[in-house]
Amino acid sequence: MRIARVLTAALFMLGAAVSPAVADASPSPSPSEDGGAPTEAGTSFRTATEIDQGEQATAGGSTGDYLYWSFPADAGQRPTVKATVKLPEASTRNATETWQVDVYDGLRRRQACQYGAQTRTAARDAATVELSCTLRTVRAWSETWANDPLPGTYYVRLTVVDLKVSDLGLPVDTEVRIDSKDIGGSAAVDGSLGRPLVPGIAVASARDDESEDSGSPGAVLSSIEPDDGWASGWWTDRWAWTAVGGVLAALAGVGGYTLTRGSGRPSRVPPGA
What we know:
Blueprint: H1 2-23, E1 49-50, E2 56-62, E3 67-73, E4 77-86, E5 97-104, E6 110-111, E7 113-115, E8 119-122, E9 128-135, E10 152-162, E11 171-182, H2 201-209, H3 237-260
Parallel strand pairs: 1-3
Antiparallel strand pairs: 2-11, 3-10, 4-9, 4-11, 5-6, 5-8, 5-10, 7-9
């Protein structure tokens, strides 16, 4: 009975330790500061419209335009970008058209999609075309020669890549949404970036090294960041599983000793024997 009570207590501790990590696996959408999602897109990396994860941004444009958005992604997240293009009336189009969504990191390196329909061709009579791109898990640290996704700002570029000249300039409506899955401690690495890769961070770092009384203005950084800050804590569910594993190992040792030690000296054997 004693061993059963101890095991029950250990299982209760396991549930209490792991439940916070499970609760964080599906982060809730964060509303924008002004209460509404963006309704326009930028035309370059420098003018990309900032959107937060969980928001659905919309924008109008013309076939042939390059539309840009940016969003934050932190270590341990696996972002998925979904884009929907509402095409012009079929009677105004002369042929099929191919749309593509690309994702770039804070260093403007194109990131490969782990899976998803990154490029799709819409038939002449199609009303919409849907695209998606799921990135690799964002790492807290990486080698300088690697192309791993790192914490910071990510850029989404949506454009048509195969279109007849006669169809250029036709109006389209677009929708973009970014959601992330929290991978948890399985993606943790022994290292971290000094600063996230966000616009203006290099200029801001240089100014931080200068004298405080220089009076020079600081760089304008990305105004959107994760709700709990960039890599806000050292805690991951790997710590919980390590602690629970240690407890279970100790309980297994106690249980093994209890089962193998026997019942002590038999009553028929005198003490001096």
